Every structure is written in structure tokens, then in C-alpha cells.
């Protein structure tokens, strides 16, 4: 038996807890392959199914509770920080906020099945003021469903292999290598996807200083605020002359967007992800002078440039 597999069998529950907890705390270490591997080993009685699920659930609840209280105390700052280091940062903030607005606590039940949502869902729950007892029950349900699903997938493969001794021996012998290759493939896929997305818009961004000069010179410019209501709840201000629009509304109203001037989009996402994604979408609709604001709202605010209060009717 390979050393790595022997080590995992002897210390599997501890490894599972630490690995899953690390992923849920924000480290880019995919835990699904490990959980499936543990499920496979339950088929040959080398690991206990109930203890595997218990270790996974405890790891999820520990990490998610930590992020819940951090989100409750520090709000959107924690969410943006997590997404900055996430391999799914191009979509994780906007996607999570949208699901929370639509499903509330139920979003926690399926969050762990969606890359990018698993880590940021807990601090966002704290940010929105969700009572901890509701968070605990919803998150516990999600952790159980996710852990049970992944473990049973592994158990299914284990049962299949158990009826084919030759295949079982081969998989057991190369289990460590196969696990490593799966992890590397997942990481490489996410990193390449993230890099390709950011490179598409890297040359078209506008710096806050340049936008300020355009505004001071009185040149025509259309500014669109793409932040989610949760983002400007603690600081209800926006750039002068900006219009609050959701990505969906922006696309629906694309025919009304001027083509004879720069259209500046800004958000509070890491790497200006929402602005960049919407800029690409508008270009496909024939709006070519669209530019994400580099650093978004936070960069503009950091330079102490003018901001105006958001009127209630603008957020509608």
C-alpha cells in the first residue's frame, strides 16, 4: 500500500477536518477530491462512513462560524477580502449577493455546491444581520447535504471497484498520484480561467485620476454604479452623476446607453470583476467605449474624490 494512502487511512478523519476547514477558511485547496477518496475507502471498510461525514460537517461548521462572526463585525470588507484571494473572484461577490437576496438563509443550503460561494456565503450572512440560530441551522443542513453527497459519490465508485479486484488494486496503488493530479488539474483550470478573464479587460480600464480629469473638464461621460444594495448599505454614497443599475437592468436598458462618449462602470468587486464582466457583455451588444473603473468605488473614495448621497429613488 502506498505510504500516502496508508497515512490517510490512519489519520484520515483528522486530515479531512483540517483540509476542509482550510478550504472553507479561504485557502485554495479543493476538498471534494479528498472527500470522494474517503467515501471510496468506506466501501472497503478502511474508513467509517459516519465518521467521514461527521469530520466534514464539523470542519464546515467551525470555519463558517468563524467567517459569520467576522462578517457580522467587519461587513463587506471581509467578503471582498475573501473574494480577492478566491480562485472564483470574477463572480463570487455578485453571485453570492444575488442568491442571498433571492433565497435568504436557503442560499446556505446549496452554497457549498457552487465554486466561489462556499467561503463567502458565511460572512455575507453575518453582514446581512441574519440571526446566528438561523444561520447555524441552514449552514448545518448545507454541510450535511454536501458532505453526504460527495462521500456517497466516492462510496459508489468504491462499491464498483470492490467487484473488480484488479481495478481496485490498480487504483489503490496509484491513489496518491491520481489524487494529486486531480488537485493540480482543478487548480490549473481555475487559475487559467481567472487569468484569461482579467486579461480581456486589462487594457481598457480607466484610472480614477483620468475619470476625475474628464469630469472636471466637463467632457460628457456616462457613469454607472453596479454595486449590490448590500455593498452601499454601510456607505450610501456614489460618484457624482452616476446611475445605480443592476447588471440585469443595464443589459435591458443597453439601447439607451450613449455611443458617443465613454461609459464608465464601477463596483466593489476584487479585480473589478462585475464591471469587467459587464463591459465585455456590453461590447458584444455594440457598445465599444465602455471602461471599468480601476479599483472601483474604493479607489475613488481612497483618493478623497467627490461623492454624493444615494437617493432612495435611485436605488430602485
What does this protein structure show overall?
The protein is an alpha/beta fold. The protein has 2 domains: 3-200, no CATH class; 208-315, Oxidized Rhodanese, domain 1, CATH 3.40.250.10. Helices cover 64% and strands 6% of the residues. It has helices at 3-24, 32-43, 49-74, 76-85, 92-103, 107-110, 117-127, 132-162, 165-173, 175-201, 208-216, 229-232, 247-252, 273-284, 296-302, and strands spanning 221-225, 237-238, 243-244, 262-266, 290-292, 308-309. The longest helix has 31 residues, at 132-162.
Helix-strand layout with pairing:
Layout: H1 3-24, H2 32-43, H3 49-74, H4 76-85, H5 92-103, H6 107-110, H7 117-127, H8 132-162, H9 165-173, H10 175-201, H11 208-216, E1 221-225, H12 229-232, E2 237-238, E3 243-244, H13 247-252, E4 262-266, H14 273-284, E5 290-292, H15 296-302, E6 308-309
Parallel strand pairs: 1-3, 1-4, 4-5
Antiparallel strand pairs: 2-6
